[in-house]
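for the recovery benchmark. tokens below, seq after
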């Protein structure tokens, strides 16, 4: 009876607590944000409640973009309040607010450190909403650094976690963000898939600003795909929602897209009207990207209207602002437009300068975009592999639970069969473990193969884009200008030496590209034999003497007649040709290049020494890296492939040697590589 009475008394206390708890929550409900902290005390609103944390969190959210410093101090208050009252959720929220304020104020190592600390703390205490906010903050930081693959990785991490815990709001945010990131790197089909998923989530809710923004994102995507009617339709869908919402930024984006669509349809009057509306909404705003796009649109309208002076003013303003804000796509489009405007004004020298700027920037952006696409694809593939592994693990656990259930039922029904079912369950368990292990190994192998294949393709296409497309586009434009009578004979003679240098570089690029491509497709087959290094050096000096004579460079062979090596002749020939070509490229007029050999015990140390411009320590650090297409310009504007030294490194190492460089800026460079010395032992 005594224990029964104690039980009922505890039950009564529990009931009383549950009854009073809602009343306490009502007393501490969230209060109006208009109150200051002093007013909260005057109104006897308890600071020990969840309402105080909610109040400060909401206040920080409202001010963080316009006043990050104030938001930072609010975060400090939340941390202090949490530490003094042992409330982990308050500490986590404070750390998250401080991280967001720091990241919005300036993106640096400190802001990333604060964001990662907030992330780890939220993960540690299981604060899912704060954890997802911290993932988003890290994504914002990498977005501002234009590290789009990092943004995508964090975004996918957040999306997977939001799906796992069933957080609808965060799932919508990360789904939309994925579409924006993929649209930026021109993966339009994948981006459209994510935008459509966002719309599916939103169409069950009342119309709001987020829905209008997604329609506008789709409009921009369709415009970039040249689906202009679809783009216009999505803008109008967005404008319909914005009739009841005051959001100038989204409206500005819509006017810019409609202006560009009307430009494509040659409706210049409507295009100018929309661009003018956009410019009016942008008054007083520091929105470099949209101001650049608006001025570019107005410049194109004036160009098509043959008002070349006005077009030049708008175009120059756009280019100047794009350069100032480092808006690369704006710089690219403005350079091409200024080329067209100056060509129309018959200012061919200025037009060519803008064309050169456009070509260089286009090449570098294409390489960066290609590399980013690869990294994003690999991140997406890794997440899919992770999901598949989790699915396999989940299936395994489900099967295990079923077997346990069957075993338990069997034990209750027939105790005599327990041994049979235990053995059966163990066999199934081993089979499932083996199946999971094999699947995981297979996924890892496929991932490695795909990664290597994509890496090779990216390198190959980057080189083609970077080193062949640029010169070929320049030749095409030159021929076009000659055919249209825009280039006189004197102008042609002026540009001829430059194009001759470009052709020399192009031919050498093709040779290196074919050599490297064959090694990647078929694998390098090294067949060592007895070779005379003096003969190989003489042959290469003879081959490159004409190029050297153009710069009055003296090539000197310091090899003896009996310098014999045991190596693949073709590969050594390619290595020497690349090193000599590079030496000529970076040696000024009337310079000297010495090729010789230092004999070691079992190796020949071959050197190519020039009296050229030399290299900085940073350049020396990168030139042999396999994953870098590093290229520079020679003393007469000669362009390299960024590939020759990679080929040299692979071939020297395949012959059992090493390659390195010793250089100082302004004092020339000396490249060394070693290969085995010939002896009778080589034949055995």
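predicted aa per position
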């Amino acid at each position: 009876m005594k224990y029964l009475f104690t039980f009922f008394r505890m039950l009564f206390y529990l009931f009383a607590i549950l009854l009073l708890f809602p009343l306490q929550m009502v007393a501490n409900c969230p209060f109006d944000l208009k109150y200051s902290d002093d007013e909260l005390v005057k109104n006897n609103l308890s600071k020990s409640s969840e309402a105080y944390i909610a109040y400060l969190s909401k206040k920080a959210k409202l001010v963080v973009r316009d006043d990050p410093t104030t938001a930072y101090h609010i975060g400090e208050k939340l941390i202090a309040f949490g530490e003094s009252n042992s409330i982990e959720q308050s500490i986590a929220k404070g750390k998250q607010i401080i991280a967001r304020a720091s990241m919005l104020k300036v993106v640096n190592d400190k802001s990333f450190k604060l964001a990662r600390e907030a992330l780890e703390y939220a993960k540690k205490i299981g604060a899912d909403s704060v954890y997802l906010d911290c993932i988003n903050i890290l994504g914002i930081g990498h977005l501002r650094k234009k590290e789009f693959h990092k943004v995508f990785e964090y975004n996918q991490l957040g999306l997977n976690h939001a799906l796992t815990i069933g957080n609808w709001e965060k799932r919508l945010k990360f789904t939309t963000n994925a579409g924006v990131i993929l649209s930026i790197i021109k993966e339009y089909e994948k981006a459209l898939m994510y935008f459509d998923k966002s719309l599916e989530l939103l169409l069950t809710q009342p119309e709001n600003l987020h829905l209008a923004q997604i329609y506008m994102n789709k409009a921009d995507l369709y415009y970039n795909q040249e689906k202009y009617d679809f783009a216009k339709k999505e803008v109008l869908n967005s404008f319909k929602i914005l009739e009841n919402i005051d959001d100038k930024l989204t409206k500005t984006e819509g006017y810019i897209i409609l202006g560009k669509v009307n430009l494509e349809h040659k409706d210049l009057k409507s295009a100018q009207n929309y661009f003018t509306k956009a410019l009016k909404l942008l008054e007083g705003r520091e929105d470099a990207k949209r101001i650049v796009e608006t001025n570019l649109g107005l410049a194109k309208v004036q160009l098509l209207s043959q008002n070349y002076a006005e077009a030049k003013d708008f175009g120059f303003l756009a280019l100047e602002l794009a350069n100032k804000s480092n808006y690369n796509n704006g710089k690219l489009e403005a350079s091409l437009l200024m080329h067209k405007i100056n060509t129309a004004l018959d200012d061919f020298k200025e037009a060519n300068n803008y064309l050169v700027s456009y070509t260089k920037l286009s090449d570098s952006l294409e390489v960066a975009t290609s590399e980013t696409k690869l990294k994003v694809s690999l991140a997406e593939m890794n997440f899919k592999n992770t999901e598949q592994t989790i699915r396999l693990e989940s299936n395994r656990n489900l099967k295990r639970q079923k077997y346990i259930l069957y075993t338990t039922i069997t034990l209750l029904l027939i105790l005599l069969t327990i041994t049979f079912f235990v053995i059966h369950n163990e066999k199934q368990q081993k089979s499932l473990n083996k199946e999971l292990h094999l699947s995981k190994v297979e996924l890892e192998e496929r991932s490695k193969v795909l990664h290597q294949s994509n890496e090779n393709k990216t390198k190959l296409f980057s080189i083609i884009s970077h080193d062949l497309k640029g010169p070929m586009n320049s030749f095409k434009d030159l021929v076009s200008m000659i055919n249209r009578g825009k280039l006189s004979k004197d102008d042609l003679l002026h540009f001829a030496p430059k194009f001759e240098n470009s052709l020399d570089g192009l031919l050498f690029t093709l040779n290196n590209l074919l050599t490297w491509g064959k090694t990647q497709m078929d694998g390098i087959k090294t067949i060592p034999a007895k070779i005379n290094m003096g003969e190989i050096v003489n042959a290469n000096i003879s081959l490159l003497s004409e190029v050297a004579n153009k710069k009055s460079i003296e090539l000197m062979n310091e090899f003896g007649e009996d310098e014999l090596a045991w190596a693949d002749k073709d590969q050594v020939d390619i290595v020497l040709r690349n090193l000599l070509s590079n030496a000529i490229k970076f040696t000024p007029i009337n310079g000297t290049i010495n090729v010789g050999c230092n004999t070691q015990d079992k190796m020949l140390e071959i050197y190519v020494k020039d009296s050229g411009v030399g290299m900085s320590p940073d350049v020396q650090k990168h030139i042999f890296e396999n994953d870098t297409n590093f290229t520079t310009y020679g003393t007469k504007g000669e362009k390299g492939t960024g590939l020759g030294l990679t080929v040299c490194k692979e071939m020297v190492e395949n012959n059992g040697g090493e390659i390195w460089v010793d250089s100082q800026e302004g004092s020339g460079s000396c490249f060394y590589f070693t290969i085995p010395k010939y002896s009778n032992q080589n034949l055995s």
